[in-house]
Amino acid sequence: MTVERDVMEYDVVVVGAGPAGLSAACRLKQKAAEAGTEINVCVVEKGSEVGAHILSGAVFEPRALDELFPDWKAKGAPLNVPVVRDDIYFFTSETAAVKTPNLFVPKTMHNEGNYIISAGNLCRWLAAQAEELGVEIYPGFAAQEAIVDEQNVVRGIVVGDLGINREGEHKDDYTPGMELRAKYTLFAEGCRGHLGKRLIAQYDLASEADPQHYAIGVKEIWEIPADKHVPGLVVHGAGWPLNSENPGGSFLYHFENNQILVGLIVDLAYSNPYLSPFDEFQRFKHHPVIKQYLDGGKRLAYGARAIVKGGINSLPKLVFPGGALVGDDAGMLNFAKIKGNHTAMKSGMLAAEAIAEKLAAGSEGGDVLDNYPAMFKDSWLYDELYRARNFGPAMHKFGTLVGAGLNYIDQNWFGGKAPWTLHDRVPDHTTLKLAADSQKIDYPKPDGKLSFDKLSSVFLSSTNHEEDQPVHLQLKDPSVPIAKNLPMYDEPAQRYCPAGVYEVVGDGDAKRFQINAQNCVHCKTCDIKDPAQNINWVAPEGGGGPNYANM
Amino acid sequence: MKALVSVKRVVDYNVRVQVKSDGSGVVTDGVKHSMNPFDEIAMEEAVRLKEKGKVTEIVAVTIGGAKNEETLRTALAFGADRAIHVKEEGEVQPLTAAKALAAVLKKEDAKLFICGKQAIDDDANQTGQMVAALLDIAQATFASKVEIEGDKAKVTREVDAGLETIEVDLPAVVTTDLRLNEPRYLKLPDIMKAKKKPIDATSFGDLGVTPGAGFKVTKTTPPPTRSKGVMVKTVDELVSALKGKGLL
């Protein structure tokens, strides 16, 4: 079926209005202004508005922002809460914890000079700056595929068709998507971007890298009584309810307006198929260290998102003919700092500078942006990620305690330049043990005060999808969930999905796998963790998904 | 024939609205806003009338702060030819809005004024009626079908007893109900074009409107949470539970 599509031509098209994509767009316009030329930049965003799909902790290091907008304070960037104190706990049981003396904290976990922010609001602000600079931003439009020509060059993207029913037929209001063609296309979709994933495979970008590694972060925003609120206090933790086989960590940040940002990050290399990141987080909130702040408070928001954490060892090649990967779509997050916003921004800025350089030299586009990896290699970003390279692998190889000790030595004695490099070559989807060899986990019932069930939580993410559209969670082989995953792993999708998308319903032979695609919060965990790699996450109709505020 | 459509920027219908802890209102900072869904229906109806050749020009109007420009751009992407932004950063109550809209309607000399039957933020359901009263023109509220013939409009209204069809002389106010139409998807090329369409700015002062407070919001509270249900296994159990609560 061929469809007539409208075509628009730009110099640069950016997929995704997150920190990386928006920083790239702003930088392109700044470079054009400096040179007295014109660069047309278009940003598409699958969320219903900029920020709607952004979820981050977030403690923000302003280094990249300082470079992009040195006058960000005067321009009203939403960095209002400087970090005043770092507390780090090791949770030894559901009631006990040890506070780590400051002396033994890896340097990367210190946050002086950083700010507690809402990354969503930072993106909203960046979008306003970009629009002022002349960038066109179109939220509510999902990039459906990359346009690749006969010469294997990426020439832009197709934004999704609207008005297709569940069976794939055109509805009365069918509206064909549009081709956005560009000299260079930047993919800034965030962790496990669905186009980024395809491009990495198509151009074999990851052949020399370690497998990428991921975690899932589940986050809530709470409003708490003013007398318990310490604006700027950062509390990080490791240990209970997780362990060395199923590792992870937690965060609790005292934000503005008596709000607390609290979350649990579960490493997707976890091994127990019965583990549910959502339920681990719910019970985690009952720990006295956390409960002391949340008691008497009210939950305002809920969300979840996968985090890319492989770092420099897992970084794919960044460029291919006609385009590049930036931010978490490439995997720029610094896991030793648990921060990805400043690194995403910087990578976007570098890619933008590389494009501006090419265009200034008269390039018509379509070539390989080989200057971007070169600029990356010379930047503080590379240096930072290089120093953090052992952090994740040390945790995986030696467990939380020994790994943490090793990281303390690496970061504080060697400044990240220890004479060793650890590799972790086991992909996250292969780490599950068989259900038969695993311990079932009996999660406590939510009390409705500190802990909640999944559905009432998803409700707080304001997630919505047009009901009558093709399911955007595609099974390569529809028989796998019941025929293989269920007997082998008790179909872990029922538990790792933080939004209740996947259910096994019915009894005995009538058992079937149900996909409630409308609940999907676009975290991408299923695409990553499914042991059969059988779930393919593709973009639903534009505008669908969560509507996060202040996340 | 010219049609004027008023559009309001409201908290998006997908957003779970939260009441501020001090009870002074609902949280709107950082929250997604969009065009009031009933106003989308009004825009869609105006565009359909234009496509049928009944309307020649569509003017969209909104009242509110700088961010309302987004809402006007949406209206322009729907197919409005131009837009008017009545700039006002403060609170606007229905009567004030109606006075401003009536002034715009008079100035524009539009024969048809279409607006949503109510906005989903305050659910006031007053503005359309007030505009009609202020200008002493006909009103056809809760429309589920609109037909224009010459200088009359035949409007089917959703009333408690079913449907009621009335005929009104133009100029008239029509307020839209849910079943009038299903708004179309906005096309990316139309959104691009909308960026270049003109928006005229005006103000209460220019329109000769003095904003006034007809009422004061004293307190905002969330609805009471629903208490947990009890599962009963037998009819006897149900009966005794109801008796226990004094309901039988």
Automatic annotation (TrEMBL), chain A:
- Bound how, and how many: what does the cofactor note say? Binds 1 [4Fe-4S] cluster.
Question: What keywords sit in the KW lines?
Answer: 4Fe-4S, Electron transport, FAD, Flavoprotein, Iron, Iron-sulfur, Metal-binding, Oxidoreductase, Transport, Ubiquinone
Q: What is the lineage of its organism?
A: Bacteria, Pseudomonadati, Pseudomonadota, Gammaproteobacteria, Nevskiales
Entries under InterPro entries matching the protein: 4Fe4S_Fe-S-bd, ETF-QO, ETF-QO/FixC_UQ-bd, ETF-QO/FixX_C, FAD/NAD-bd_sf
Q: Which cofactor does it need?
A: [4Fe-4S] cluster; FAD
One Pfam match? NAD_binding_8
What is the uppermost EC class here?
oxidoreductase
Catalyzed reactions: a ubiquinone + reduced [electron-transfer flavoprotein] = a ubiquinol + oxidized [electron-transfer flavoprotein] + H(+)
Q: What protein is this chain from?
A: Electron transfer flavoprotein-ubiquinone oxidoreductase
GO MF assignments: 4 iron, 4 sulfur cluster binding; electron-transferring-flavoprotein dehydrogenase activity; metal ion binding
Q: Give the Enzyme Commission number.
A: 1.5.5.1
Q: Which residues form the 4Fe-4S ferredoxin-type domain?
A: 511-540
- Function field: Accepts electrons from ETF and reduces ubiquinone.
TrEMBL record, chain B:
Q: Which residues form a coiled coil?
A: none
Q: Which residues form the Electron transfer flavoprotein alpha/beta-subunit N-terminal domain?
A: 23-211
Which processes are annotated in GO (biological process)?
carboxylic acid catabolic process
Q: Which domain of life is it from?
A: Bacteria
Question: What is known about what this protein does?
Answer: The electron transfer flavoprotein serves as a specific electron acceptor for other dehydrogenases. It transfers the electrons to the main respiratory chain via ETF-ubiquinone oxidoreductase (ETF dehydrogenase).
Name the chain's protein.
Answer: Electron transfer flavoprotein subunit beta
Keyword line: Electron transport, Transport
CDD domains xrefs:
ETF_beta
List required co-factors: AMP
Q: Name one GO molecular function term.
A: electron transfer activity
Q: Which InterPro entries match?
A: ETF_a/b_N, ETF_b, ETF_beta_N, Rossmann-like_a/b/a_fold
Specify the species: Solimonas marina
* Subunit structure, as described in the record: Heterodimer of an alpha and a beta subunit.
Give any Pfam family that matches: ETF
Give the family, as the similarity comment puts it: Belongs to the ETF beta-subunit/FixA family.
